[in-house]
Design goal:
The chain is mainly α. It has 4 helices and no strands.
Length: 102
């Protein structure tokens, strides 16, 4: 049985449209609850973290090089280094460890 690709695209478009349209039409008043406001404020950051974290660990040939790069990146970011320095150090750690681990 051959799947109908157009049906899949139509369903995906409908679901995406409903997810974006329903909050705009159902919630007309300003949200005053501080818990809900803080929850909605942090949703983009949490979503980005959830998508990025597995890629950090499993984007390399060895999970250990990804974990080491994550540790170095967190340490440098905690010390207040720039994003360029943090990413350069993390990439360097992965490169060096992949040379020796693989």
């Amino acid at each position: 049985m051959k799947p109908n690709v157009y049906l899949y695209i139509f369903v995906m478009a409908g679901v995406t449209y409903l997810i974006r349209m329903l909050p705009l039409t159902l919630i007309k008043k300003e949200i005053k609850n501080p818990y809900i406001k803080s929850f909605l404020y942090y949703v983009p950051y949490v979503t980005l973290s959830v998508m990025t974290f597995p890629a950090i660990l499993f984007g390399t040939n060895s999970i250990w090089s990804g974990a080491a790069a994550l540790a170095v990146a967190v340490a440098l970011a905690y010390k207040g280094k720039s994003l360029f320095q943090v990413s350069l150090a993390a990439c360097g750690i992965v490169f060096v460890l992949e040379l020796f681990l693989c």
